[in-house]
Amino acid sequence: MGLITKAKGAPKSEGTSAGGGVKYICNVCSNDITATVRIRCASKSCNDYDLCVPCFSQGKANLHHDPRTHAYQVIEPHSIPIFDEGWGADEELLLLEGAEQYGLGSFADIADHIGGYREKDEVRDHYIQTYINSSKFPLPERADPRDKSLSDAVPREEFQQRKKRRIDERKQAKDDQAHIAPTPAKPTSSVPSCHEVAGFMPGRLEFENEYFNEAEEAVQHMQFSPEEGINPATKQFDPETELKMVVMTIYNDRLTARTDRKKVIFNHRLLDYRKNMAVEKKRTREQRELHNKLKPFARIMSHPDFVTFSEDLEKEQNLRQAIAQLQEWRRMRISTLQHGHQYEQEKAARLARSYPQPGQFDRLTNGVRPKLADKDKGAPEVAQAVVDYTTKADLPVRLHSERGQPNGTPNNDSAKKSNLPPIPGLAPANWDEESAPDWQLLQPAEQDLCNKLRLHPKAYNCIKDAVLREAMKYDGKLKKKNVREISKIDTTKGGRVFEFLVEAGWISNAAKA
Asked: The organism sits in which domain of life (predicted)?
């Protein structure tokens, strides 16, 4: 019995009982002989010539087939499990044929080739589990022809019933799904106008203007010739190759930064613009302010963790607001909730009466009514950003500390512009979020310091962390010499960093202690 050649796959249609797959038809009577015994001509002059048993027994023939002289093969569908309980030998053979014909990556086409309503993921998982993960790779576990344990354990009749039941169930599910109104298909063309976010191309998962969009300009004409490379005399790269390697390193860093930003966009589903805007509109003004200040933390968190983190901070903010309100009621000698609500109503009415009512022509002069919350600088009646509220030094539940003491809480001067003069002869830099990662993590005074010293924000954060760790060992006190040694930068810049940290109150000057 010779090898079975590739069969022509019939087009997949909704009406086929096998759910697609290869279909064999008698070349004389045109009957479907896919699931029955068939006779195949083994002569080289007949290509893919199949006959049903009645036509073969009657000696019928057409085309170039001569039943008297041509050899033939009797082919029976081996619908018994050999490698897996749910896969028959015929399906295993069709799987290998489809992989050879369409390639291992085209599992959707292989599933159509197999038929039986097999799904793409099902075919891929079966191939990986049976062939790739096998201890006898590249052969399956039961590759030995003498191993008939699986086929003996599952009788042919029982396996046929399982297969028929599976096909009927999947066919019924597909028919039921056909009656449901189909969802609008996404646009097939990958152009910016096919997505709700302008400039995004969904088919390519790219943007029209990428981060560092000009990064490719530096390497577009770069070439590495076979003559370049390591100099045999010095065992090092020649200067030209070394320069090219530096340029490629910079280019790879920019691609990494671009990829990191795409990961944040995709992981946090920022491309669902309409859905995100609908959620944003449901939030109050205070919640929006809080979420805007928490957005930098999304870069280092997964989406579920960031959602939990934001919800927990909202709860903390509400609790702090409630505590502050109860403390205010206690100062006003209010002991019941009923009197507290009455106090809040009278307070709001009193504040409303203190402002003049808007006249008929006030809107023509663009007059804006001042906010009630601006009058009360104590515990907020409306929720404010938790970052601002939790770092105030005058909270009712926090002890007051002297200005400039290293108690772990920066004073108000650190939130303003730095008073340190620039270094003579050193032009200030102009960092921003595009040119300097971690720029948004700095306070305004720290941003001003980095610009004056031309110090990269990431390097400044490393220096600051090392200095504060060292200061914790000596009760928050360090000398300028220690900071210069820790920072390992120019002595003038190191001295300015020390002066800034002392001015901000994060450390103390050990020389004056």
From this structure: Eukaryota
Top mean-pLDDT range of 155-164, 179-188, 406-415: 155-164
What pTM does this model have?
0.36
Distance between CA atoms of residues 498 and 492, nearest Å: 10
User: What whole-number distance in Å separates Cα of residue 446 and Cα of residue 431?
Assistant: 12
DSSP alpha helices (H): ranges in 210-284? 239-267, 273-282
CA dist 72 and 46 (Å) reads 10
27-85: pLDDT as tens digits: 888 887 877 788 888 888 888 888 898 888 888 888 778 888 888 888 877 777 888 88
Give every CB contact of residue 273 below 8 A, 6+ residues apart in sequence: 196, 197
What is the SS3 assignment for 428? coil
Residue count of the chain:
513
Contact 18, 116 (CB under 8 A): yes
| Separation between Cα atoms, residue 280 and residue 382, nearest integer Å | 18
Residues sharing a CB contact under 8 Å with residue 499, sequence separation 6 or more, in sequence order = 420, 480
47/183 Cα distance (integer angstroms): 44
Q: Is the dihedral of CA 261, 265, 271, 277 positive or negative?
A: negative
- What is the helix (H) or strand (E) element at residue 466, kind and residue range? helix 457-473
List the alpha helices (DSSP H) in 138-182: 149-153, 156-179
Superfamily of domain 80-176, CATH level 4: Homeodomain-like (1.10.10.60)
Peptide bond into 138 cis (omega under 30): yes
d(CA 429, CA 453): 8
